[in-house]
Amino acid sequence: MRRRILAMAMAVTMISSLAACGSGSGGAESAAPAQETKAETTAAKAEEKKEAATEAAAPQAEGGEKSIEGLTIAFVPKLTGNAFFESANKGAQEYAKKWGITVNYTGSPNAAVADEVQVVNQAAASGADGICLSSVDATGLDDALKSAMDAGVTVGTWDSDVSTDARTIMVSQGTPEILGKMLVDMGADELTKRGKDISKDAIKYCWHYSNATVTDQNSWQVAGEKYIKETYPNWENVAPDNYYSEQDAEKAVSIGASVLQAHSDVDLIICNDSTALPGQAKAAQNAGLTKNDVSITGFASPQSMKEYAEADILEEWGLWDCGLQGAMGCYLTAYVAAGNEVHVGDKINIPEIGEVELLANDSIAEGATTGDVNNGVVLLPERLVFTKENVNDYDF
Question: What is the DSSP string of 143-157?
Fold first, then answer.
């Protein structure tokens, strides 16, 4: 509602300016524009009252909650064309139909800050009630998102976060500790199946993912490194500066090849990025290597890795239900946009999904502050591990 009122106010201001520019010293000619301006102002006030009345009469959900029905959410991925984000959109669209909201999937094929800022600006200008996005950078979108919020657009995040004061609720796949440990545990399991003694052997490993500024993947890598040092002090990171392929599919293959060429004796490559993992697997396949030669694991959708699992390039990898995550992000963004208020510790019932709890922001980012209202984190209930034996059980 606020965005529509602001748009009308801008229209009134423009009419007033035109009237002033066209007025002269004569009475009749200058009076007509003034009457039009007064009429427009009256119309704006009437529309504002109408909108307020409509909102007051809006259907109430169970428990006195304001309904999200009829709202429009711009659903923004890091980049389009990636299996993870396309699957998330599929899930969001399926749930949106049940909830009676519109989800507009809009993004750029390039995982770049400038591109995503442009998408955010366009979404805000389109009249969307909310924007739910996965950010390519921890802080690069903050200004654009804060401007959208100032214009009355509710901002939520999912998958990869921004600064906590540049959004309301974040839907996270898990804490850094949960996901960092999961990545390392999958790698340790693969190494064990290859006959390695993970507690004694001098395991050589490295990380390959998108870039050094993306919030989620870096937090998993940091947590994973801490877990390795505490659990497997015999392991050696052969590339402490990490390998980055910027979520570019072709670059992921070439960087993957560079990893294998620079470290022909590497035991484990952890790819905590849904573009890096298939790229690394492809590079290993191109080099004639299998899971018996080098262990590769990470996060990616099951179907995007099926061919490599069936070709015995990798043993196992993981993810979570990204369709569910995308849907939850859109719902919670719409929930706040509808005028509902929640605080840390509150429970929110998401129709068709279940009850979730709002946690403080420091549950996923150490030292992060949390606002008094409509600010915090919701976690997905579970994560998944895939192998060639179960990959066909999942369709995303």
Answer: HHHHHHHHTT-EEEE
